[in-house]
Amino acid sequence: MPTTDAPSGAAVVARGLRKTYGGRDVVDGLDLQATAGAVTAVLGPNGAGKTTTVECCEGLRTPDGGTVRVLGLDPVADAVRLRPRVGVMLQDGGLPTGVRAGEMLRHVAAMYAAPRDLGELSARLGLDAFARTTVRRLSGGQRQRLALAAAVVGRPEVVFLDEPSAGLDPQSRHAVWDLVRELRAEGVAVVLTTHLMAEAEDLADRVHVVDHGRVIASGSVPELVASGPGTSPTIRLDARPGLDVDALQEHLGALDGGTWTVAEPSPGEYTVAGRTGPATLAALTAWLADHDVLARRIAVGRRTLEDVFLDLTGRHLR
Amino acid sequence: MSTANPTAAHPGAASPARRVAAQASFETRAILRNGEQLLVTIVVPVLLLVGLVRTSLVELDTAGATRIDFVTPGVLALACVTTAFTSQSIATAFDRRNGVLRLLATTPLGRGGLLAGKILGVLAVEVVQVVVIGGVALALGWQPVLAGLLPAAGLLLLGTAAFTALALLLAGTLRAEGVLAVANLVLVLLVVGGGLIVPPSELPGALAHLAAFLPSGALGEGLRGALLGTGVPALSVVVLVAWTAAFGAGAGRLFRWH
């Protein structure tokens, strides 16, 4: 048997994880690590293999290759010992539709010797308002909060949250994020999948960007944002759509002889990347004035996580 | 191998007995509170019992027994099928589709505890059915052979095993909507031509030979034999055991959690 070579503090370690459905590699040699007392985000576009990866870590799927260790144990072979220590929030909720919300939470709590205080948990996630409503009648956000409560009610050491903020209004989202931060402070290893950049930026200590079943970039948010091309500030410009980006690119290039990339990722929103300096802004606004264009907004800043994500995974729809 | 004792208490988990009891009670309440499930498991059998006893719309050769004595065992067999098969297959299929089975499998309950809880939940609902249907039958003049009560209970357990295994086989392999349709259709077919209430020998054509080898016919014949005092046919027990083994093996191999 392979020994557990996880460094101390590593709560979840996946090495070379592979999972195939119908001859297609959904997860293809994926490496991932999550530490206790930290939030690890698995970020990726739809179909990237995020859910399959966490389901292998939860013991719900048996990998076709590679190893997974959670708290040093095999999620499938050692399931009996792991289940009391691991909390799971599934993407589709996993809530029976015919029971009341409060009854469902009490039922999951009955599986643990020393569950969290249900009153306190219900209050902080705002479950009291719909405790007597059947799950069938709950809104998407209410179901998400109930599923999160069920995931943490057993005081787990590791929590897997599959898209915890999907369908949440801003108030609910912040309540969920506060709870996740508190879990981290208590030393829980939190693994969450998301495609919300804000969620990863605000919460995650470490981000694994996943695409086509592999991790294509890993690091803290500042590390990811600092890496890659264009570490000098990018200019964001909002103006009327359809400006001649090639002409603007030439105009800026003529100024300093450098290479400039001007793009219009969505209509009326432009990015200008190159060796941005004080003179760049003057040249840019002069060009706009020549073309009788009034900018609604000009911002100078480094790349966001979304820029990194789109650079890594491409801009095409899938 | 790890040196830790695998049977050592898991500090975070409730005791296995408590987990299974919680699941059984959860399943039982879910069935008894669901209107459609109550209709199929309680109302329909009681209406059939009263209808078959108080009217002669259905010709039955009772071989000298009173109509109520002859019909009640068959209605109890039907009740067992509605809970163990129809209601359980539909509930499990929708729980599977909604991810409930997967979520509960990640809690300390596990897959084994989930199965044990489901079987105990079915048995609890059957106790309610026997009390209600038996009570109505007694009020209508039912006089069961007392020596047959224990064998009848054993047959109901065997029937529950066979039909729960079939329910899980269906629920674990078909889409939820498909299970809903198939489970209701199969129930109607078994009531009409499966030997539950009308004995196999009174069915037309090939069914007369076939129905005794169906789990429904075996359960119906066995319960009639026990409660009418004519003795439980050995064939009934053999047929139910064989179907339980076949459905159980099929469910064990083919059940998909996703």
From TrEMBL, chain A:
> What membrane topology does the UniProt entry give?
Peripheral membrane protein
User: Which Pfam families does this UniProt record tie to the protein?
Assistant: ABC_tran
Q: Which CDD domains match?
A: ABC_DR_subfamily_A (cd03230)
Q: Which UniProt keywords apply?
A: Antibiotic resistance, ATP-binding, Nucleotide-binding, Transport
Q: Which InterPro entries match?
A: AAA+_ATPase (IPR003593), ABC_transporter-like_ATP-bd (IPR003439), ABC_transporter-like_CS (IPR017871), ABC_transporter_ATP-binding (IPR050763), P-loop_NTPase (IPR027417)
- Residue ranges constituting the ABC transporter domain according to the UniProt record: 12-237
Gene3D superfamilies, per database record? P-loop containing nucleotide triphosphate hydrolases
Residues in a coiled coil are none
Q: Which GO terms describe its molecular function?
A: ATP binding
Report the subcellular localization: Cell membrane
Name used for this protein in its record: ABC transporter ATP-binding protein
Source organism per UniProt: Isoptericola haloaureus
